[in-house]
Design brief:
There is one protein chain. By secondary structure, the protein is an alpha/beta fold. It has one domain: Class I glutamine amidotransferase (GATase) domain (Rossmann fold), CATH 3.40.50. Helices cover 26% and strands 22% of the residues. The chain has 7 helices and 13 strands. Helix 3 crosses helix 4. The longest helix has 16 residues.
Amino acid sequence: MRTLRVGVSVCFEAANSNRSLFTGKALQYVERSLVAWVSSSGALPVLVPATPENERIEEYSHCLDALVLHGGADLSPQSYGQHPLRPEWCGDRARDLYEIALTKAFLAVDKPILAVCRGMQLLNVALGGTLIQDLPSQLGERVRHRDSMLYDQNFHPIEVTRDSWMSSANQRHSRVNSIHHQAIDRLADGLAVHALSPDDGIVEAVALKDASFAVGVQWHPEFHDRNDSSLLSDAPLLGRFIESAMARIDPPR
């Protein structure tokens, strides 16, 4: 069997005249942990660059076996029909358009999608849902979903729904890392909630009902510390994603 080719969406960094390297140039990049996590499964991670007008996105959906939607900057409220409540929450509209096109292209051919943090929010928006622009100011801080000092060492409890495939693969009550200040507000049609933050009801995992595998998680499984047994294991999530992709290129006989 050939090696799986898993596309990884890129983060954007705008041109910056004050940057000493690639001065004044726009950048597209990935965070190393995510690529290493995908690679740990034996799959070959392939960065999917944004092209002008996103005109070659459909080609990637045909030549790759699956897609991971990367975390990163806020979505633009314009992408779900709203205006930013504060200027710093204007998000990255150009990246939204690229990843929405990428998501729709992979869904159209029913290839597996794993959406991480921003990626889960993007999946919801791509399907017609909306977001809470800022949890602390709009919902309060019963749960601290982001702590800039602790970063990926900020954790909170999670509760996996009883009917989720994750409830049998992992602990139903566990903890996850948390690095976000935005979250799903109106859930898109077709998405089912698979995990919640039990203390404030924030959606922590979703899955698209009619897809072979289109799952979003609000935490970062690639940052998981496998020496901490109190944390929700990342292995079943990665395993299920890879198995879904393998099944497409080598269907059961």
